Amino acid sequence: MLILDGMPDRPVAGKTPLSVAKKPNLDKIAEIGINGIMDTISPGIRPGSDTSHLALLGFDPYKFYMGRGPIEAAGVGIDLKPGDIAFRANFATVVGHGTVFDKVVVDRRAGRIEQTEDLVNALNEIDLPIDFEVAKATGHRAVVVFRGNYSAELTETDPKVVGEKVKKCKPLGDSAKEIAEIINEFTQKAHEVLEKHSLNLEREKKGLPKANAILLRGAGVMKEIPSFKDKYGLKLAVVSATALIKGVGRILGGDAFTPQGATGNKKTNLESKFSASLDLLKKYDVVLLHIKAPDELGHDRDFEGKVEFIEKLDPHLSRILELDFSKNCVIVTSDHSTPVSVGEHTADPVVVSVVHEGVRVDDVKRFTEFDAPKGGLCRIKGMDLLNIALDLLNLSKKFGA
Ligand code: ZN
Ligand code: ZN
After folding, report:
1. What pLDDT band is residue 253 in, cutting at 50, 70 and 90?
2. Are residues 41 and 144 in the same domain?
């Protein structure tokens, strides 16, 4: 499964990046496959990358989505148990007097600090009445997991804007009272530890903002979720540089890989990602290769950038075309559209091509938003995609007699 994150677009003066880019290999995939369009969640529902990836792997996001915190936490390598509560976190700079909650956030990214390993280690030494774990994520980001069986009906400590005080975590229901108090205790103790940490004293000397507070947002509780292996009897690998997508793979019990040079942006090492994915096909049944750049370029409203990236990506697809399609099934699609005219995810259906020896090849010869709807797959839902592939591969069970 090749997922071109946010690739499809809405036409600008009748054209989309997919319709103007020169991409002989991607078009070849459309030509030898069966094509269609897909609502990754449901018609008119704007998908997040996490909910849509769950659906593309056959897991109903309305049933299993647990918020961004647990998925990011799984994505940076934390093993979560049902009931654990996970937050996304930022190292930030606060100034003022009194407790951390009296202080004002002056930089939500602490000068875009990168080297936070020592700070994370120090935070993990804090004494709390329950087990918890802090892990580094990219740049100034981290995740914090509180172990136990808690409700995520909590407010966030991150004020989301500079110039405001760190917020107290408040319970939104009785069942979250205890954990809210523990989170406030953590936030205060974290500030005390970080404020006097040698790395921050050094930063202060150099005139850099201190990473002296940790702000929490995006709470979610890990749910019971069947594994990909239990559901399909197949081994799943996810290749991505994005913690959120690796996290989707890991909460389903799959393995997640970030090959050398994979960055999650347009400078990513595509060679390395395709090589790793093709290697993994020898050990795994389903390999999901996630390419993030088109989404980023969509958010940046960069039409030309999307075109350039498609043209940079296309030569690598020649390696996919060399696969033996009597044994392999290749799906090329997206998790949602990120049109340059909108700069956000939209519900415009995505393009999908499926290649396998047995498919009913249709007349579609180009991988575009305009050609795909004429294909034999017509309009499908994200939850149906994997079933379609498994049926083609004769890996499906019959329903009924
Ligand atoms: Zn996405
Ligand atoms: Zn996006």
Report:
1. very high
2. no
